[in-house]
Write a structure and sequence with these properties.
Shape: globular
Order of helices and strands: HHHHHH
Radius of gyration: 21 Å
Structural class: mainly alpha
Strand content: under 5%
Oligomer: single chain
């Protein structure tokens, strides 16, 4: 089939959305959500596409939340090893869990969203244990049920220093603020 001058390809209306389907672009949807609810839709972190400086910034944000999560729920090293940021699968799992938490605990959500998040958390913990069991090695011996030393006192355990050293491999000596308590 060939196109003629009379054939028309829909290009959308003056607002940029396809008048045939009524679909908004992601940017338009974000703007609409910002205008309507006062907040944009949280988007997943696409780790593989980040440059090193952005990766370091995102890791600091994630580490702050992961430290809270580990302490709040008493996660042991079989689920959350102290060197979790060195393992892509754990970063991806924890990042996805944080994204789900951000949505579930948004003030615009129904109260049932928190219960839904806990089901996601339950399933994620299973996957975290599976991934961690494949790591080998022994940071924190990857066993035990007590609150891990690195969560209880990140500075004294050496976690903060090791994390900052890792960030410097991404950004050089200048780095975003690391999580603190």
């Amino acid at each position: 089939m060939t196109m003629t001058d009379n054939d028309h390809i829909p290009s959308g209306d003056e607002h940029g959305h396809d008048s045939d389907s009524g679909e908004l672009t992601p940017e338009q949807l974000d703007a609409l959500m910002q205008d309507t609810l006062g907040a944009a839709i949280p988007r997943p972190v696409r780790w593989a596409e980040l440059d090193p400086a952005d990766e370091a910034t995102e890791l600091v944000t994630l580490a702050t939340w992961v430290s809270w999560l580990g302490a709040r729920y008493g996660l042991d090293s079989r689920e959350l090893p102290p060197d979790w940021w060195r393992h892509g699968a754990l970063v991806e799992e924890l990042s996805a869990l944080k994204g789900a938490w951000d949505v579930a605990y948004d003030q615009t959500q129904a109260a049932s969203a928190a219960a839904d998040w806990h089901m996601t958390f339950y399933n994620t913990r299973i996957r975290l244990r599976e991934w961690t069991s494949r790591l080998g090695g022994s940071p924190g011996n990857r066993t035990g049920t007590d609150l891990q030393r690195w969560l209880a006192d990140p500075d004294a355990s050496g976690w903060t220093s090791e994390f900052r050293t890792y960030l410097s491999t991404l950004t050089g000596p200048e780095q975003p603020s690391s999580p603190g308590r």
